[in-house]
Amino acid sequence: EAARMARFVLHNCDWGALATLSAQSGLRGRPFANIFSLSDGPPGSRGGSGVPYLYLTDMEISVQDLEINSNASLTVSLAQTPYCKKHRYDPQNPLCAHIIFCGSVVKVNDSEVGLAKKALFSRHPEMESWPKDHNWFFAKFNITNIWVLDYFGGLKIVTPEEYYNVKP
Fold first, then answer.
1. Domain containing residue 54: CATH number
2. Which of 32, 48, 106, 112 could make an SS bond with 40 (beta carbons 3.0 to 4.6 A apart)?
3. Structural domain count of the chain
4. Which of 147, 126, 120 is nearest to 49 (CA)?
């Protein structure tokens, strides 16, 4: 059920740690992680699309990194939900499931803007009032690799096909 767990964790998380390869002076080529709000769809038990959508601006340092190299990793963890605290699981405990996605971040095309907007603004309504002069745009994380840590014994590998084909 690793693919289902990956979909569950992403859908129940509102933010993730996005790691890029820095293009910044003094850090060039080094890993650089930053927190971003995300959503794969409106909250609820119906599950989302599985696509991590982001609302970005070129003014953000990690976005500047992505303009040079769009490859990144994205980690989301149930540690941000009440689940792990309720069970007294430390965020590093494998029972406090987390998912690591590798892939790239790309702007969504015009046909996908409506989906991304609904997904993000339903979870992060504040975004609608962010300054227009920051030139915000909708992006998505194109998933190429998925690792699931949800139990003892090491990571489980899930293919994007398994991930997108499972019913959340």
1. 2.30.110.10
2. 48
3. 1
4. 120
